[in-house]
Amino acid sequence: MMVSVVLFLALPLLGWYLRSDKILAIGALIGSLAMLISLSRIAPSNNRDWATEFSVLPRVHISDQQVTIEGFRNFKWRGPQEFNPVWATRSFDLRRLESLDLIVEPFKDSELMAHTMLRFGFGENEYFIVSVEARAEKHETYDLVAGALRQFELIYLFGSESDFLTVRAVYRGARLYAYPVKAERKFIADLFRDLASSANALHANPKFYQSIRYNCTTTLVKHFDRQQHQEHIGLRYETLFPALTGKLLHRMGYMDTAYSYEEAKEYFRVDERIRESQRHHKSQ
Length: 284
Prior knowledge:
Strand content: 15-25%
Low-confidence stretches: 31-39
Shape: globular
Number of helices: 11
Mean pLDDT: 89
Distance between the termini: 55 Å
Number of domains: 2
Radius of gyration: 21 Å
Order of helices and strands: HHEEEEEEEEHEHHEHHHHHH
Number of strands: 10
């Protein structure tokens, strides 16, 4: 891999130094081919020194309508990176699922890039999160370029709302939007089954996270489209820039609201509500 990177960088630079367009073009081609060959030889694995947040690969058991999630993440956060790791087993009846929200967390330094998740609801104030992420090792932090170069495996995380949303809103100061998806109960249940099936498949067949084809948003879109008999979302400008997915959802008629998009964006912003709830909880 290192040799490929050196060739990828050095040969075009040599062409530039010699002021030869032909050498520049050939160098870029050879370097690119060397990198592609090197990347194709890398195999995904479940056996690495994983960061604690990704150390457990969840497994979902579904028997008729009964669901059991092993490796359900319910960390207790004390700061942006400080936590008590808690992995639990959670069970529920699939027939109780009644709501679905798209969670959008825009990056602080960008109005285009974001992390997206799904929130499944059983009723008032009872939710869990499904998040598709790059499975980082202990020495790694997420990087868009590294994600395109097969440096992360793919993981489906199932966890509590207090784990996935509280840390972002309270300790990291993130903006969070929870857009309600217009969907029947059967669609929601089928979507969950499909997510669970792909999560389970990673035990025997690990896959790479890919910054475009298999990232947090495009992977969820694939699952959504497999259940959708109307217009598919597919690969669009807004799915490549996930901070815009709420706007896309609204434009396609998949957001369950009568508000305009700008009104919905304001109404369904939830980070301040989460912070207020946390302050109220601590004051008691």
